[in-house]
Design brief:
This protein is of the alpha/beta class. The protein has five helices and seven strands; from the N terminus they run αββββαααβαββ. The strands form three sheets. The protein has a three-stranded parallel β-sheet, with no helix packed on it. It has a two-stranded antiparallel ribbon with strand order 1-2. Strands 3-4 form a two-stranded antiparallel ribbon. The protein starts with 5 loop residues before the first helix and ends in a 9-residue tail after the last strand. Bound molecules: zinc ion.
Length: 163
């Protein structure tokens, strides 16, 4: 897996409300637009992942999110490896999905020298995209609505905080 380093990712980040670039200070990101209400305080960070959510205009509930320290709202997302393996054995990925994933990677590498893929909802590795995560030639930007070791920031897919 080759997630973009924070130094590569930072210039691409934007305020989820006004789309202005973000400034980084002491590990926290802030909106650089002085007339934006979200510029009044830095965005929170959980486990070194910026939480780039405009909670006033999001389906995410700020109190619930902070109350769970950014845990997944979907039950079972924190499942153990044993559960994941069992599920994979009982319900293996569809061969069609696997073939489409391989085709996507092939076309991506043909079109771009250093392809970058944005993974929306990347908190877990979805069915048949493990090859994407295993390919060191493909750079990934990954976020979800909760904290995960597979994501670089937390965001709402309705307001993706990228420029
Ligand atoms: Zn803003």
């Amino acid at each position: 897996m080759r997630l973009l380093e924070i130094g590569e990712l930072s210039p691409l980040l934007a305020c989820p409300r006004c789309r202005f670039p973000l400034a980084q200070s002491e590990g926290l990101f802030s909106c650089t637009n002085p007339s934006c209400p979200l510029s009044k305080r830095p965005f929170r960070s959980i486990d070194n992942r910026p939480v780039l959510v405009d909670f006033e205009n999001s389906i995410l509930d700020e109190n619930r999110f902070l109350g769970t320290n950014g845990a997944s709202p979907v039950e079972g997302r924190d499942a153990s490896l044993a559960k994941w393996v069992t599920k994979r054995v009982l319900f293996p990925p569809s061969p069609v999905t696997k073939a489409n994933g391989a085709r996507f990677i092939r076309l991506l590498k043909k079109a771009e020298v250093n392809p970058t893929v944005l993974v929306v909802g990347g908190g877990v590795v979805g069915s048949s995209i493990d090859e994407l995560y295993g390919d060191q030639a493909i750079r990934l930007i990954s976020f979800d609505i909760y904290c995960s070791t597979l994501t670089q920031f937390v965001a709402d897919g309705h307001q993706i905080p990228l420029r």
